[in-house]
Amino acid sequence: MLEWIILFSILGSIGAISAAATFxxxxxxxQKLLVTILIxxxxxxxxxxxxxxxxxxxxxxxxxxxxxVMMFLLGSILxxxxxxxxxxxxxxxxxxxxxxxxxxxxxVLVGDAFHNFTDGIxxxxxxxxxxxxxxxxxxxxxxxxxxQETGDFGILLHSGFSKKKAYAYNALSSSTxxxxxxxxYFIFETLSEIIPxxxxxxxxxxxxxxxSDLTPELHxxxxxxxxxxxxxxxxxxxxxxxxxxxxxxxxx
Length: 252
Prior knowledge:
Structural class: mainly alpha
Radius of gyration: 18 Å
Order of helices and strands: HHHHHHHHH
Shape: globular
Largest sheet: none
Strand content: under 5%
Distance between the termini: 20 Å
Number of strands: 0
Helix content: over 70%
Number of domains: 1
């Protein structure tokens, strides 16, 4: 199981950055289209992974105590809200935002390092719960990391970083996923009773990212054509997750 955890940690960090760096080679128009497609797809993936994968598994693993799990879920959403306010966990989409400019680069790198460290914990907890839940979570992390890293690249370049330095520093900040996943694997093997609550926190993270970061981006494009395309891609993301999760349906 550790091999799978390490694999998805690499794919969700260095792999996502490499894909984002490739996107930067396209023209702006193509780049924006690809990122919009990924955001729509990732929204469906994250929502389904949280609502149909992580939360039910957390409740079941906690001895069917939904109230405790949902309290962790609610508390985690509030925590992520305040965390984003305090240290700006993800980049601000507004060009007038205070974090844009020369100071934006270091802020994005610090926030990205923390965010990817959390991803490593999530991956380890998910795989230790159920292999197919781990696959779903790993896939969900990759799906939302690619558009996020593309945005981070744009901010680093805007802050004066060269393309080479932007990739190197971004890779370094994102590599925190790997040690976090390995350390968490050994901790959770010993303290398996905390895994249900880690899953609840993970679900809160997915829901928060999908609803507070990704969905507002989708609403920036209006019109029937854009709306239908977004809906189709959302449904495709949902279908992908349902398929992966259904492979591991089990009874205790």
